[in-house]
User: Fold these one by one.
Assistant:
Number 1:
Amino acid sequence: MLMRRDWSMVNRCNICKENEESANHILIHCGASLVFNLTHGLAKLTGGIKRKVEHKSPLERLLAATPLAPFCLSGVGTMNEEQRSLLLKTSSRFPPPQGVKLSYGTAGFRADASILESTVYRVGILAALRSLKTKSVIGLMITASHNKVSDNGVKIADPSGGMLTQNWEPFADALANASDPEDLVRLIIEFVKKENIHFEGACPAEVLLGRDTRPSGGSLLEAAKQGISSIVGAIALDMGVLTTPQLHWMVRARNKGMKASEVDYFEQLSSSFRCLMDLIPEGSKINEMGDKLIVDGANGVGGEKLAGLKNMLNSPVIDVRNSGKEGGVLNEGVGADYVQKEKVVPVGFGPSDVGLRCASLDGDADRLVYFLVLPKDNKIDLVDGDKILSLFALFVKEQLAILNTNGNEKINNYYHACLGVVQTAYANGASTDYLKKQGLEVLFTPTGVKYLHEKAAEFDIGIYFEANGHGTILFSEEFLCWLEARDNELSSMSKGSEQQKAASRLLAVSKLINQAVGDALSGLLLVEAILQHMGWSIHIWNALYQDLPSRQLKVKVVDRTAIVTANAETVVVKPPGLQEAINAEIAKYPQGRSFVRPSGTEDIIRVYAEATTQDAADSLGNSVARLVDKFLGFGSSS
Ligand SMILES: CC(=O)N[C@H]1[C@@H](OP(=O)(O)O)O[C@H](CO)[C@@H](O)[C@@H]1O
Ligand SMILES: [Mg+2]
């Protein structure tokens, strides 16, 4: 049980003896004479007891820091009878689907919405446990992104706003597949013990919930709430219909003690965008005609949110189509995934849009691609995630170079920021060549932003994108700290200088671009600002390099887990013989490249092929797809 405390602010920091009016000091007078100081990361009782605490924290951290907390715990890594019976009771209302094995996959659990209630309920429990473990706010998002409208899914946002730590994925799988309430409770007890979770600790679990526009979202949200409230004292906060990146942003903001509402999100995006626009070099604005942007909202949540955001901006002129309000179906013939994979115009676009700058969001607005409508056959010129990555990388590199221009200043004012870019095997080979030619360090990870994000976070500035348009730019805390100080210094010494503007631009980028996860809305605003900055039309941007023709195919197989890959998914290690057969096909095509991997979001094997002509890419893709079918398809012996 939590003891009631009488909090009141006091005026002096007992640790550093400074006046605590500054933002860095939070002094809390609690019960006896506990004084807590965030700057020093210490809690101190006048009796002399000191306890080390984590530095990140809002109120929960303060609670955890109190020397009284141990008396509030009924046990670490244990579960009392009340908790056990609550879990048994609620879980009996959510029987798992029979004969289905669920896996956390590339981006959480996804399946036909009709079988997901039990999974979402269990992920609610998982989210609450994660919150207890990390003593932080956790996010739970109900979405199946680009999948068809009858599907749904659920995933967790960790305290940083990123994806659930991969260490917990096996537990997520075990929970989702537990056969009955007893099995479920046994797994939870074991896990709580292993992870040393303060089961009824002083900090209550807190989970922010979001969902996309799918009709099944409402009932699944209720299941998530039931799961969360199956952990005694846990709090579920319904943030409403959101884009996936908005929820991730909110979780991150909450855990950093910042304002975290949707209004705050829009405010941050629009003000940093305006800042970038104010810093556009004289004379580089593109003409009125080029100012118009047409956006396909995939009939999902992104279109609706973009419509709200654009009201806070003076430019560009944004025409949102497929906002979901005109009766179209989510992701049906629309959206970034459709446009990128099929390379045709989405519904609602046609000959009258030829030559205009168009963009497409996916169903939960964490992906963004641009495109140009071609005059014939509903075909498009795709400007994909690789080109967005290239545009961002060029801009960041240019601003860093300006910032580090050596004037007459001392060398210790410079910070040689390490800039890196991260791609997956789906990146077009031409993009990788281009990036390397720009002198950039290019790294590869398996598919899924959880991998790319982790790698990008190793740099001072890490830019990652999947070809499908999911990506962002990460700035390290250390670099941002230096940049802010440098910006202040330059502003006082030489406001309006090129160096000062470069520092301000980079700071604005770090605020505009979502630091938690790839975000189509913030990505779109950054693309728009950079195009204006460069004075580039979409045609000039698209001409940075010429994509190698490629083809993506899906193959239905008996068991997709039968394919095991290595080397960032470029080599099949199981079943034996398949890679050799693929190699033999590739060898027939100049500059041919092809790989296969099981999808983590759909029950299929994905085939990718690239070659010097579209016919060659199609033919290579088809041959490899036939091989997959031969080895693993319904007619195969395996
Ligand atoms: C080829 C492709 O586009 N794969 C997508 C897709 O994953 P699969 O595991 O390939 O189904 O969905 C993921 C989540 O949105 C995304 O991260 C990934 O890039
Ligand atoms: Mg998505």
Number 2:
Amino acid sequence: MKVTVVGAGNVGATCADVLAYREIANEVVLVDIKEGVAEGKALDIWQKAPINLYDTRTIGSTNDYEKTAGSDVIVITSGLPRKPGMTRDDLISTNAGIVKSVTENVVKHSPDAIIIIVSNPLDVMTYQAHLTSKFPRTKVIGMAGILDTARYRAFLAEELNVSPKDIQAVLMGGHGDTMVPLPRYTTVGGIPVTELIDEDKLDAIIERTKFGGGELVKLMGTSAWYAPGSAAAQMVEAIVRDQKRVFPVCIKLDGEYGINDCYLGVPVILGKNGVEKVIELDLNADEKALLETSRKHVLEVMSVLDKNA
Ligand SMILES: NC(=O)C1=CN([C@@H]2O[C@H](COP(=O)(O)OP(=O)(O)OC[C@H]3O[C@@H](n4cnc5c(N)ncnc54)[C@H](O)[C@@H]3O)[C@@H](O)[C@H]2O)C=CC1
Ligand SMILES: O=C([O-])CC(=O)C(=O)O
């Protein structure tokens, strides 16, 4: 299996590293526009192979897309990260152009690949890649839900003093402040979370999750990369190993949840064909209202992209 990661910055390099040391792919090609950066990071990851004991080949390229030819999965992380005081949506004008040109380049050389978008604003960049690639919607998907649920699960594990491995959760909507965590579908070793935690503490964790990205931007002056890079690698793994994992993933909705033509995070089954099924939960009225708010927000940002097209 061959995987290309475009953008050899913080998230892209972390993703490539996880793909290599966990031997998720046989070959990982890292591409960046900055001269030498992708080559250097790919070489560094390869030189770690004898220490961490893996065989995955990592190859770097400065904008030479021939090296990406025949990739099974492409992860796009190229684009600006936000700085303190910015929203993810503030990145649209720069990142839309980057995602468009990168998508044009990758699809030329890998017409059958599955594309995973990471660049922000996530839902709208997934829209951009879908428009440009003209691939089926099931093969152009965005990474956000795995990261957002991971944050939620980590906060819950800390509060309850339990292993994060035992916390299962699902979250829907756009990757931003309007995301919709679903406590009704959160369990701890099979026990509904609401039986283990006070409502006010759970509400505080939900609020912290919604602003989880911003919390890290404030601390570091740029956005997160360890959890995002690992989350993208987990999506790649589900695809290349045909695992049929159930994850929240951003995809264009085609009638599911009564929504058309909007890119939102929903639970799906992820396997060798990309999204193999969108799972439709029976949301209650409050959950539907939150999803509707998220839909309206993402549509507004999508319309900015349409206006600038
Ligand atoms: N979906 C999510 O949950 C998350 C999304 N992000 C987003 O991922 C993106 C990357 O973040 P970082 O890695 O922290 O940024 P970074 O600045 O460390 O890396 C971005 C890389 O993209 C490269 N690049 C820019 N234009 C390019 C082009 N046309 N072709 C190839 N490479 C190009 C840059 O040279 C740079 O090395 C940002 O947009 C950020 O907001 C970050 C974390 C989580
Ligand atoms: O917060 C950001 O800008 C990056 C991101 O999407 C996240 O870490 O959730």
